[in-house]
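Obj.: predict assembly geometry.
Materials: sequence records (below).
Method: joint structure prediction, all chains together.
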Amino acid sequence: MNATHSLVARTGAVFHRYANPGRFLRLGARLQPWLTWPALALSIAGIVWGLFFSPADWQQGDSVRIMYVHVPAAWLASSGYAGLAVCSLLSLVWRHPLADLAAVEIGPVGAAITAVCLATGSLWGKPMWGTWWVWDARLTSVLVLFFLYLGHIALIRAFDEPQRGYRAAAILGLAGAVDLPIIKFSVQWWNTLHQPDSITLTGAPTMSTAMLWPLLVCTLGFTLGFAAIVVARLRAAVMESRIRAALSARRGRGRAAPDSAHDSDVPGGAVA
Amino acid sequence: MSMTHLPYIAAAYGLTIGLAVLLGATAALRLRRARARLAAIDRPARAGRGENR
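Observations (raw structure tokens):
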């Protein structure tokens, strides 16, 4: 029991070491160009490679090129939600000061990328399956993921007191993580119209390397792009929080001592 | 060069690139605005601390 407590406390201490907003802003500023420029370069290279230089599929024709945007979007939809669930855990267990803000910023980006996954899947499904949509397990579980993102965004804004919104959204974020294995294994557990995974961690890929490489480049580029956007949004959110804290401190001092209102004003380190 | 299913491919790539540009641009603008605003608030504070010394 004591060992468990000490492990939780030690893990919390490690996370809190990187929770200081000032430290995060410095780290984020250093990290931002290393995420943004490789993301742009790899995404452009992957898209051009996939669109113009990779082979067409012998059965699907050129529609297989939709894979180079659909698969990275699907990967990011799930991994973005996994990130949101980790933030929820950090918020609920360790009261990590940046975890709630990170979850707030991941939500809309994750919802947008899940919408892209669903839309590009439909655009791929129509010429291949003859329909925009079927209620099969894979498609439905990804649609549920999209609603989980929307629910998370709505729940944060549903309360007058932000902390209550963060807490409710963190519970949803954590509970919703149960959808991730359902998405992953849906093509094995049920008989679906969606094809099984072509790339797995344990087996060799079932696609040609001429298609695999541009797909990997696109996936890496999109992943870095997702991270770059989330880091930029999180940096902005921390700065906005500091602005609010500074303005509220200024207003407080203005009321307490009107004559010395302009004397000093140090933006606090408060985050949300 | 002609592609089969071109409208579907164009729509998928257009949607993805459009949304990525939109998300990236709004994040960059928001960050720039926040940085400028924080600097504007910070400037008189630092000047104030300098005067008090």
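Conclusions so far: Chain A touches chain B through 44 residues (CB under 8 Å).
To do: check interface contacts against the pulldown list.
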